Amino acid sequence: MRLLKIVPDNTNIGFVRLRGIAFAVTLLLSLASVGLVAARGLNLGVDFVGGLLIEAKFPTAAPLDAVRERIDGLDVGEASLQSFDPTTISIRLPLPRSTDEGANNALVAKVEGALSQSFPGVRYNRVETVSGKVSDELIWKGVLAVFLAIAGIALFGVFRFEWQFGVSTFVSILHDVLMTLGFFALTRLEFDLNIVAAVLTIVGYSINDKIVIDDRIRENLRKYRQMPIGELIDLSVNETLPRTVMTSLTILLALVSLLLFGGHVLRGFTAAMILGVIVGTYSSIYVSSSLLISLGIDKSRFKQVAAASDSRKAARANAERIAPKR
Amino acid sequence: MLDFPRWKILSIFGVLLLGVLLAVPSLMPDHTARALGLGGMPRINLGLDLAGGSHILLEADTADVAKTRVAAMEDSVRDSMHAMQPAIDIGDISTADGALSFFVRDPARVDAAVEKIRTLTAPVGSTGTRDWDVKVVDSTRIVLTPTQGGINQFVDQAMKGATDIVRKRIDALGTKEPTIVRQGSDRILVQVPGLQDPAKLKALIGKTAKLEFKLVDTQADPQKVAAGQAPIGDQILRYQNGAPIAVKRRAIITGTDLAKAAQDYDGQTNEPVVSITFGSKGARAFAEVTQQNVGKPFAIVLDNVVLSAPSINEPILGGAARINGNFTVDSAQQLAISLQSGALPIALKTVEERTVGPGLGADSIHAGVVASAIAVALVVAFMLVTYGRFGVYANLAVILNIFVILAAMALLNATLTLPGIAGFVLTIGTAVDANVLINERIREERRRGRNVVQAVELGYKEASRTIFEANVTHAIAGTIMLLLGSGPVKGFAVVLLLGIVTSVFTAVTFTRMLVALWLKRHRPQAIHI
Description:
Chain B: Part of the Sec protein translocase complex. Interacts with the SecYEG preprotein conducting channel. SecDF uses the proton motive force (PMF) to complete protein translocation after the ATP-dependent function of SecA. Chain B: It comes from Sphingomonas morindae. Chain B: It is a multi-pass membrane protein. Chain B: This is Protein translocase subunit SecD. The complex is a heterodimer of chains A (326) and B (529). Chain A contains 10 helices and 6 strands. Chain A is α+β, with helices and mostly antiparallel strands and 326 residues long. In chain A, the strands form 2 sheets. In chain A, strands 3-4-2-5 form a 4-stranded antiparallel beta sheet. In chain A, helix 5 packs parallel to helix 7 and helix 6 packs antiparallel against helix 9. The radius of gyration of chain A is 26 Å and the shape is elongated. Chain B is elongated. In chain B, helix 1 (6-27) packs across helix 12, helix 12 crosses helix 15 (487-522) and helix 13 (418-447) packs antiparallel against helix 14 (452-484). Chain B is α+β, with helices and mostly antiparallel strands and 529 residues long. Chain B contains 15 helices and 19 strands. Chain B has a 6-stranded mixed beta sheet. In chain B, a hairpin with a 2-residue loop joins strand 15 (298-302) and strand 16. At the A-B interface, helix 4, strand 5, helix 5, helix 7 and helix 8 of A face helix 7, strand 18, helix 11, helix 13 and helix 14 of B.
């Protein structure tokens, strides 16, 4: 049996040579994302703007227009209706103007009552109400979480590697997050709490990717002390390319099955993850490693470390050789 | 590398076997597990989004607390000034702007009044501050303002009481395994699995249920009552239909004197009513007042709304009464539960609700399982065609990893949510990353001309460092989600974090053992990778 090799042996793509173009493209896409978010805004879910969500399941094909008409007639504010599958409609309503504790309940009861009357056999799968106060807190917590995650991981990069690695990782992660936000602004997919979890996962995943490459760059810095930095980075990215591609593909396989079969509740989450994996892989290859050249790495620091660890390695190798064979 | 002592092999297999065994009860329905005698084994809880149920976040109205405090203080000030020898005459009492202020008619007695009022305040904590700030303005006016510390203390006490009462009310519904926990300084989180009617639940737990019996002031001028002007010592309340009625401020008896409340039927009309019984002290007070006021009406007031105002036909001596109020059987039952559990010491309102019907939960589980199975199949096939034998080892590791995560979740009594299932699918994808790193490294080392054992050894050694670093960063993201995320997101973070820990064991240690055992047995000169 011949085994599959997605990336052929001894692949040598000149990534570093392309970095000017890559930076330009990256910058352009990031700016476009910021512009999209600023201009169109995100379609924030009830988690973040407050309001009501009722998901109704009909015994037969959901009569979307009839339901819209019925709800518009109730004078409950501007409703937004969405259909996930032929029998299910989700209805989103703004919070009632009255802040009275019973107002939410009354509104839910009013809508459910009207629907049950007009469409016998309808069931309510999901009801969510979030007050303005709670939604403000959720926004704040979500932003804080993403910020802390990026900062924490970049800090880890600085301690574990050199500051240049921390900065390059930080920049490419920022890029990944911006692209995800831009994607949500473009598609108008609902941005809710689950998406924040997806963004955090993307951050974690993307950094995972970068660390693998950074780790190889560090290793090669010790191994090939005379090699020009551009060449060395190309070598490291190419060496780790089979792994980068393999891992991205396996995760994409898993995510695509989740997207297709995991049900509508997770659809936004999975879409965000899929985009994040693609964007993260791109930024690992084209952004973060190439950025290291621009930031400049002090190669002399690696010589000292290398000498120390080399002698230790040699000692260990000898120890293994003299150990009795079984 | 090839050297794996027997005890190590046995313990690795032992851990995996334990993992599989502990995961089993969670994989079967509750009743099957119990039928097989596994009911006592740790199980994974299903989150509300999978099991169906309601998640309700209640928030206390802290502004209301300050108001009630000021009102209560007004009563104690009136009483204590009246009780002084001789009584201190006060007037122009105002409770506006969250402070109590009044005027002392005799300027010579202001100091005595202040001294007396200071005894009504209490210290807060050990910082030396008190719960009320007492000031004299314009030399004759005394102003009492509750301090922030005082309000906090009162909210805290009220919240403790409210949490207990909410728990009692939900227990009375007889639902299975509800969760009622206090969150932060002024919130209560209620989670009730499998409930069908969240509106009923909210109506029940959010009802203050402050019951008072008050005498009706029959002498009040109907025109003034209609205009909302209450005679001295009276207050204007409204019926359910909005009609005003003047009643005495002071209650004859309140819900705190209740011994028992139950839903019942009216003997004549067969309407649902709530029958109540007072304790001995309450019964005595009730008997006394009803003896003195035969023929006069009294109002039954619930949360400041008059339910009815029957006339006292004869003295009520037994301490039993009936509350009529156009109830349905359901609403009478709810009121009985609310009264029996006592009044909430603080008004609560729902600030967040998430209810998932059992149907959607079951659909989600089904979709999640299907998606996971397909994801596993795809990844397994992909690994197999890419790495051959080494792919088989990685696949074994991935599948065992799923069991080990389930076992760890069961042991931790963790909750599986829908995003948690997504976490599983993602873990399947990322767990093989460790094996990809190792296998790619082995391929590389083989290309550099190292022999089989050296290549495998270097592959594991060099990749382990990278795997460690990658996992730490993942764990940072996961921990933040666990700390800051709410319900479902937390469930995702739990699976992600456990997956990081267990995948190091299955993807690195376990596969390394499998490779070592194979190499030792066959000593191959070349490997197919």
